[in-house]
Structures are given as C-alpha cells and as structure tokens.
Design brief:
Blueprint lengths: L8 E4 L6 H30 L2 H4 L2 H27 L6 E3 H34 L4 H4 L2 H26 L9 E2 L6 H5 L7 H32 L5 H29 L9 H20 L4 H20 L1
Parallel strand pairs: 1-3
Antiparallel strand pairs: 1-2
C-alpha cells in the first residue's frame, strides 16, 4: 500500500440511529453545551475581573482550566449536536484530522494543568510559610507554558502518524467524533504497532500523571495530621474538589487509551462523559461552591447593574 489516503470524508454513525432518541439527545446535549460554555465563561470573567482572585495562583489556574473546558467541549459538541439534524453525518478527512489534533491538544494540556494545580495545593498546605516565594507569577507562567508545550507535543505526535495512515475504505466510523482507535479500525494496513504507540503516548501519560497526582494528594492528606481542625476542614474541602475532578478526567482517559480498541463496547459513553459532562461539572465542583468566587460573582453582578442603570 502506498502511504496515502483515498478517503476524502468519513461517515459518523453518531450516538444512535433511532430518530426519536436522537431528538431527545439533541435537546439534552444542546442544554448541556450552553450551560457548560456559560458556566465556564462566567467563571473566567469573574476571576479576571477580580484582582484578589486573579492574584492567587489557585484561581489563576482555575480560570485557565475553565477556558480549556470551553475549548474541549467546543471541539466535538457543536458538530455532534448539529449532526442530529441530518440523516447522514459526514466529516471531511481534513476536518477529522483537525478535530483529532485539537481535541488531544486541549485535553492533554488540561491534564498537565491539573498536575500544576496539585503542586500549588501541595505548596500551600505543606509549605505555607514559603508559598508566596515559591508560587510566584513567573512560576505560574512557566507551568502554563509547560502545559501548552506538552499538549502541543502530544497531539503533534498523534497526528503525525494518524494522518499518514492509508484509508482506502470503508469510511464509516462507529462513533460521534474522530478519535484514534475508531480510525485505526478503518486503516488499510496493519495498525498493531500504531496501537502500541497510542497506548504509550496517551495511555501511559494518563496513568503516569494520574499516579503522580494520587501520590501528591496522598502526601497532602497525610500532612494534614499536624494541622488545626479548621485548617484540616478547609484543606480537605479544597483537595476533595480537586480529587473529584482528577478522577472524572483521568478515569475515562485511562479506560479509553490503555487497552485494545475492541475490548469494550461503551467507548461512546466514555467519550460522551469526558467531552460533555466533565466540562460542565468542573465549575460546579471547583468554583460555584467556593465562597470567595461566589462573593466575586456578586460584586461583578452589582457592577454590571450599576453600569446598566447609568445607561
């Protein structure tokens, strides 16, 4: 086989072929997407408009995490929702590669940001006297730069190999989006080695970062023994939110990319949870239950009301 693709577009089967079920899912996902984008953008605007919050590394990372959640949900959700209105759901070869690249870029960047947030909590709880001297704005910028670079490197490796696979037919993807394992099933060549590369590049990275995060939060929780009761309660509340988001993000990633592509039949549900529900839950878990953020939102709302009255 020549190292080229004969397929110009792919046909996506979507979540279901049942017309009635598609209408229900269309409405649900539309509401979820609007709530996801609205909630995360509100979080970003609130933090950016509050100097006190923006000056805190934790909230700086939270704003960046919300921005990434908007990007991640916007990679697949708009097309997936629009496809419910069409009987034949197609995506061009180039569009498929772009969706694959951008999805992995923002997804892997978010995983690294979560690792940076875990380090921030470790310093804040285990080395509180040195927190301001360690978590400087320069270090925060470096950590964000590392996240962008790591995400770019990861997605570049994925797309460099995937785009070179020969696709000569069939072109039907049993999924609602373009992803690695569904595409491997359509390639007109032996993809065993590439499958191992996917596991090494995606699955191993997920397991490695997830393990490091669990160890770091284990160290944090162990160090709380010497804290006061009030300090333990506040730290447990913050770490509990972080751990919940980490589990929701990493478990689907590990399930998806650390096993043979045909081992499970619920790939769509795993991807749906990761791409739509997790970005919606993040602001609810992290910020909307946070007193400081809610106070900042109240102040922002009052300023908007004052500006509205002046007009």
């Amino acid at each position: 086989m020549k190292n080229q693709s004969f397929v110009t577009e792919f046909v996506l089967l979507g979540l279901s072929q049942n017309p009635d079920f598609q209408k229900i899912i269309f409405l649900i996902l539309l509401v979820v997407y609007i709530a996801t984008v609205g909630g995360n953008l509100l979080n970003v605007v609130t933090i950016l408009s509050s100097p006190a919050l923006l000056g805190s590394p934790m909230y700086f990372f939270l704003a960046f995490l919300s921005f990434l959640d908007v990007c991640i949900s916007s990679v697949t959700a708009p097309k997936m929702i629009a496809d419910f209105l069409y009987e034949k759901k197609t995506i061009s070869f180039g569009g498929c590669m772009v969706q694959l690249f951008v999805g992995h870029f923002f997804g892997s960047t978010e995983l690294i940001v979560l690792a940076a947030m875990a380090y921030d909590r470790y310093v804040a709880i285990c080395k509180p006297l040195h927190y301001s001297s360690i978590m400087t704005s320069r270090l925060c910028g470096i950590l964000i730069g590392v996240a962008w670079t790591g995400g770019l490197l990861h997605s570049t490796i994925q797309i460099a190999f995937t785009s070179q696979l020969p696709f000569c037919g069939p072109n039907i993807i049993d999924h609602f989006m373009c992803d690695l394992f569904p595409l491997l099933k359509l390639a007109c060549t032996d993809t065993y080695v590439f499958g191992l590369l996917v596991v090494a590049n995606s699955g191993f990275i997920c397991i490695l970062i997830f393990s490091l995060l669990l160890v770091s939060y284990g160290v944090i929780l162990f160090s709380l023994r010497s804290q006061s009761t009030e300090g333990q309660r506040k730290a447990l509340s913050t770490c509990g939110s972080h751990i919940a988001v980490v589990v929701m993000l990493f478990v689907p990633c590990i399930i998806e990319y650390t096993r043979p592509p045909s081992a499970f039949s619920f790939d769509k549900m795993v991807e749906l949870f990761y791409a739509t529900l997790t970005p919606l839950l993040n602001p609810l878990i992290y910020t909307f239950r946070n007193k400081e953020v809610k106070n900042a939102m109240t102040r922002l709302w009052k300023r908007l009301m004052v500006l509205s009255d002046k007009k």
